[in-house]
TrEMBL record, chain A:
Entry GO CC: cytoplasm
InterPro entries: Ald_DH/histidinol_DH (IPR016161), Ald_DH_C (IPR016163), Ald_DH_N (IPR016162), Aldehyde_DH_dom (IPR015590), Aldehyde_DH_NAD(P) (IPR012394)
All copies of domain Aldehyde dehydrogenase, residue ranges: 79-501
GO MF entries: aldehyde dehydrogenase (NAD+) activity
Keywords, comma-separated and alphabetical: NAD, Oxidoreductase
Catalytic-site annotation from UniProt: E280, C315
Organism: Trapa incisa
Reactions performed catalytically: an aldehyde + NAD(+) + H2O = a carboxylate + NADH + 2 H(+)
An individual GO BP term: response to water deprivation
Record-linked Pfam families: Aldedh
Stated family: Belongs to the aldehyde dehydrogenase family.
Designated name of the protein: Aldehyde dehydrogenase
Automatic annotation (TrEMBL), chain B:
Any one of the GO CC terms: cytoplasm
Any Pfam family hit: Aldedh
Organism (species): Trapa incisa
Signal sequence region: none
Coiled-coil portions: none
Name by which UniProt lists this protein: Aldehyde dehydrogenase
Keyword Oxidoreductase: yes
């Protein structure tokens, strides 16, 4: 972010790009290079350009005869949605339910299309798409439909003596027009899961799917138009220019899933309109492995939390492992065996693992592997195929902490293992870094679990497993510090898109002159006694009060 | 609420970016060492705050008189007593707040258990306002401490006596390795805002709120912004006129002479009812503040000459000056403006466009009271909205249709004193909320934790993905029992 904002007190206007355009790059890249989509031979290379509006991104699906979505169009869109919101259309229970039903129906009827789009974008195995995206969305919409009445009810709360007699409640209120900017790694789930919350809370919604998963993006645009009320829920496809045009508008909430770098840009843009944000970012999620674990199960769960999670391209997948020096070799052996069971002897050919999303990320990952101080640390895997955008599950042992692979979020199939003398050292190692989105511990030691949960800072945690905490709808999902702010899932999604309006009701009876001027010494004494809950003081003061 | 540059007296060493960085580093060290995490530390600091407020009540009232000519009664009740109540509540509830909350788990993770832990965020910055400079500074500090954070408080330079009193008292009563006060104005605030904080809590106006949030964005720091806005009071003709008037007066002039973020900013009533309402106001105002309110000791003054001339300008606006139906007197040397009521000011006048934050009260009139809802919703969302009526239907409509940070029916401002209700704005009036448990939550991260054992590990979720696994998984998800059985048989015969 250095240099993107000037420190003017006028409102930190973005100064990049010459004009009023924000710098806005592809999620999960820290390089200034342009992300490249793997282009079929018939297409020209498609680059997501950051330079100027005139050479704006050519979206592979948005045919070039379509006009660019610019600031003016964005502002028209928001105005339209705002008037729909004002009309009260989205506030009714029936509307919310009908839209949630639409999402459920869409997931049921179009499963095949969705699986196909995900396969096109990521070579995602069918079962993974079904478990991770489709089932996740189905249960999220089911839960929302089941609980919606309860969520919408205002919550009665107790009142205090100071306002006696009175009653109070907390009324959840839709925010208005919300923007959801999504990402490419779970492009269906991470687009629609927040949409479910926004709809349940009674908002109008604009969804901007990621241009890095173009097939899913265009499918989302098509399906949402077909299954949902398009007067209140809209999809805007596009890349940097479109996102920039959207971010110039005033929203009532923005939920962004992606990288911390873009998160900063989104939040700075939101600041201009005082728009609250939820930022779902990533980070280097560690997994600590103790020596007393059931090794076979542990290895399988690490695989499920790394390579079976979109080939490591998941914000909560395990980024690196910490274990003891002594145990490392055993763990590596177990991983080797479990990997073979999962993906066969030649994992490059396995159909059960996603590919790297695009050439840009492929090169980024290869760059991490080819760093001098890292390349000789490979103990498993290391093979790659640039044409197929595949990298074999790769394990590295004892990479130096200052290597690039330990500095940035890996977001791919590489798994470094750090070793320590005693496992407790790992806590400090984790806490010395930015707070990760998730932290995992594999152990049978109860003391160790307790210490871990008490002392390690992270968005969320799972003990003896990875990733699965996001499937528990009773738990908030969200980061802290560099891994994000705000949370969602289940009721938390509803809350994320609601304002909690405190309402206090009073009658006209029993109005005491105590709180009104002129302020006499007696009033003051009595009022103080009342507020301090000092019964004797109250009685004494009352005697004086009435005895005057 | 305003925050403006005040000429700083020379001679004092300036607090620059270097000093700010050093300060944060020191606090981060103390936090990392775990000093602030224990129940005992939190408890001792809350006790310190309570004791400090109890033992220095008079000094607090004196500094508020120096800064604002605030009546003692208001200082004792709205600043000292409110803060003491916050401390007491936090002390009473802290153990319960700190206990992790158990959460239900789902079939997908069976067998497992789950909980939500409240984890301190780290080092937090609280930037406060001048209008309730004691309470609005320390009330967020109560939450920050209760949640186990290290804290820097920057009180407002616009209330200098209270600012320096806070610096002195906090140094004396609280653990200086973890709780610090930095006094100053724009340069000091800018130096602080350059640092990475784990949360920033700002009370003030929307303009500065934007600056704070943009600065916070550079470090991905979440913010709570407690701003203001034009909080309306709708007065129906079906009401207890006397009580309504008194409750509006106490929420307006009785709250720091209208210089409060939740004060009624303007009133909407029906054309027919307006004259009655104005008469009742006149009557009650005289009872409260006498025939010469400029001389009343029960009204705060305007905080400084900047605000005095801002308010004068609102009154002197051509569109408005003929609309004064009560008051209008001012005394520039004493920074005093009389409780002033204006009837039927045009909606495009300055006074209807900015937050008044002073003793002026415009009354808008409508033909039907329901029209007021549209008027309110056509502006930016206010921090509070008030309604006076006996009509149940109208109350219901008001609560469902009008968007605002918080609401009170048949009273003003008192929702602040109810700790079970979250206090905070929405839209232009702010983001995030606090008070009671909500203060604790505002300074905590809710960490989700799932516990599993190594038992009951199903091969289903692991590759290689066979078509049987696919069938079973699909059946499990849709909950089709028959297919599940079929698939299991299929699987076992595999």
């Amino acid at each position: 972010m250095n240099g993107v904002y000037c420190n003017s007190l006028e409102g930190f206007r973005p100064i990049s790009g010459g004009g009023r355009r924000l710098i806005f790059r592809c999620p999960f890249t820290d390089k200034s290079k342009l992300p490249l989509l793997p282009a079929p031979a018939s297409c020209p290379t498609i680059s997501l350009c950051l330079c100027s509006a005139s050479t704006s991104a050519v979206h592979p699906v948005m045919a070039d005869n379509k006009d660019v979505f610019d600031t003016r169009e964005a502002s028209l869109l928001v105005r339209e949605l705002r008037s729909i919101f004002k009309s009260g259309r989205t506030k009714s229970y029936d509307w919310r339910i009908s839209q949630l039903k639409g999402i459920e129906r869409m997931m049921e009827e179009r499963e095949k299309d969705i699986v196909e789009a995900l396969h096109l974008d990521l070579s995602r195995p069918e079962l993974e798409s079904i478990i991770a995206e489709i089932s996740g969305l189905k249960s999220a919409s089911k839960k929302a439909m089941k609980e919606l009445k309860k969520w919408m009810m205002s919550e009665k709360v107790k009142t205090s003596m100071t306002t006696y007699p009175s009653s109070a409640e907390i009324v959840p209120e839709p925010l208005g027009v919300v923007l959801i900017i999504s990402t490419w790694n779970y492009p269906f789930l991470l687009s629609l899961d927040p949409v479910i919350g926004a709809i349940a809370a009674g908002n109008t919604v604009v969804l901007k799917p990621s241009e890095v998963a173009p097939a899913t993006s265009s499918l989302l645009a098509k399906l949402l138009d077909e299954y949902l009320d398009n007067s209140a829920i809209r999809v805007i496809e596009g890349a940097v220019p479109e996102a920039t045009a959207l971010l110039e508008q005033k929203w009532d909430k923005i939920l962004y899933t992606g990288s911390a770098r873009v998160g900063r840009i989104v939040m700075a843009a939101a600041a201009r309109h005082l728009t609250p944000v939820i930022l779902e970012l990533g980070g280097k999620c560690p997994a600590i492995v103790d020596s007393n674990v059931k090794l076979e199960v542990c290895a399988r769960r690490i695989i499920a939390g790394k390579w079976a999670a979109n080939c490591g391209q998941a914000c909560i997948s395990i980024d690196y492992i910490i274990t003891t020096k002594i145990f490392a070799s055993k763990l590596i052996d177990a991983l080797k065996q479990a990997l073979e069971e999962s993906f066969g002897e030649n994992p490059m050919e396995s159909k059960d693992m996603s590919r790297i999303v695009n050439l840009f990320h492929f090169k980024r990952l290869v760059g991490l592997l080819d760093e001098d101080q890292v390349t000789d640390k490979i103990v498993l895997g290391g093979q790659r195929d640039e044409k197929l955008l595949k990298i074999a599950p790769t394990v590295l042992l004892d990479v130096p902490e200052d290597s690039q692979i330990m500095q940035e979020e890996i977001f791919g199939p590489l798994l470094p293992i750090l070793t320590v003398e005693t496992l407790e050292e790992s806590f400090e190692l984790i806490n010395s870094r930015q707070k990760p989105l998730a932290a995992y511990l594999f152990t049978n030691d109860e003391q160790m679990k307790k210490k871990f949960v008490q002392n390690v800072y992270a968005g969320g945690m799972a003990i003896n497993d990875a990733i699965i905490h996001v499937t528990v709808p009773g738990l908030p999902f969200g980061g802290v510090g560099e891994s994000g702010m705000g949370a969602y899932h289940g009721k938390f999604s509803f809350d994320a898109f609601s304002h909690k309006k405190g309402v206090l009701y009073r009658g006209f009876e029993g109005d005491s002159s105590l709180r009104y001027p002129p302020y006499t010494q007696k009033k003051q004494t009595l009022m103080k006694a009342l507020l301090n809950g000092n019964i004797i003081g109250i009685i004494l003061a009352l005697i004086k009060w009435y005895g005057k | 609420m305003g925050s403006e540059v005040v000429e700083k007296s020379g001679g004092k060493a300036s607090f620059d970016v270097g000093a700010a960085a050093e300060l944060v580093e020191g606090l981060r060290g103390a936090f990392a060492a775990g000093r602030t995490r224990s129940y005992h530390w939190r408890q001792s600091q809350l006790q310190g705050l309570l004791k400090m407020t109890e033992e220095h009540e008079q000094e607090i009232a004196d500094s508020l008189r120096a800064d604002l000519s605030k009546p003692e009664f208001e200082s004792f009740i709205y600043e000292a007593a409110m803060l003491k109540n916050s401390c007491r509540l936090a002390l009473k509830e802290l153990k319960r707040w700190m206990v992790p909350e158990k959460a239900k788990t789902s079939v997908t993770t069976f067998p497992s258990s789950a909980e939500i832990l409240s984890e301190p965020l780290g080092v937090v910055l609280i930037i406060s306002a001048w209008n309730y400079p004691y309470y609005l500074s320390l009330d967020p500090v109560v939450g920050a401490i209760a949640a186990g954070n290290a804290v820097v408080l920057k009180p407002s330079e616009v209330a200098p006596a209270t600012s320096s009193l806070l610096a002195k008292l906090v140094g004396e009563y609280l653990d200086a390795t973890c709780v610090r006060v930095v006094e100053g104005a724009v340069p000091e605030t800018s130096a602080l805002l350059e640092q990475k904080w784990d949360k920033i809590f700002y009370t003030g106006n929307g303009r500065v709120g934007r600056i704070i949030m943009a600065a916070a964005a550079k470090h991905l720091t979440p913010v709570v912004l407690e701003l203001g806005g034009k909080s309306p009071a709708v007065v129906d003709s079906d009401t207890d006129l006397k009580v309504s008037c008194r409750r509006i007066i106490v929420g307006k002039w009785g709250c720091n002479n209208g210089q409060a973020c939740v004060s009624p900013d303007y009133i909407i009533t029906t054309k027919d009812y307006a004259p009655k309402l104005v008469d009742a106001f006149k009557h009650e105002l005289e009872k409260f503040y006498g025939k010469n309110p400029l001389g009343s000791k029960d009204l705060s003054r305007i905080v400084n000459s900047n605000h005095f001339s801002r308010l004068s300008k609102l009154l002197d606006d051509d569109k408005v000056s003929g609309k004064v139906v009560h008051g209008g007197q001012r005394d520039e040397s004493e920074l005093r403006i009389e409780p002033t009521i204006l009837l039927d000011v045009p909606r495009d006048s300055l006074i209807m466009e900015e937050e008044i934050f002073g003793p002026l009260l415009p009354i808008l009139t409508v033909t039907k009271i329901e029209e007021s809802f549209d008027i309110i919703n056509s502006g930016t969302k206010p921090l509070a909205a008030y309604l006076f009526t006996n009509d149940k239907k109208l109350k219901e409509k008001f609560v469902t249709c009008v968007m605002a940070g918080g609401m009170v029916v048949n009273d003003t401002t008192v929702h602040l004193a109810v700790p079970t209700v979250p206090f905070g704005g929405v839209g232009e009036s702010g983001m995030g909320a606090y008070h009671g448990k909500f203060s604790f939550d505002a300074f905590s991260h809710k960490k989700a934790v799932v516990y599993r054992s190594f038992m009951g590990d199903a091969a289903l979720r692991y590759p290689p993905y066979t078509s049987l696994k696919l069938r079973l998984m699909r059946a499990l998800i849709t909950g089709r029992l028959f297919t599940i059985l079929g698939a299991i048989f299929g699987l076992s015969s595999d």
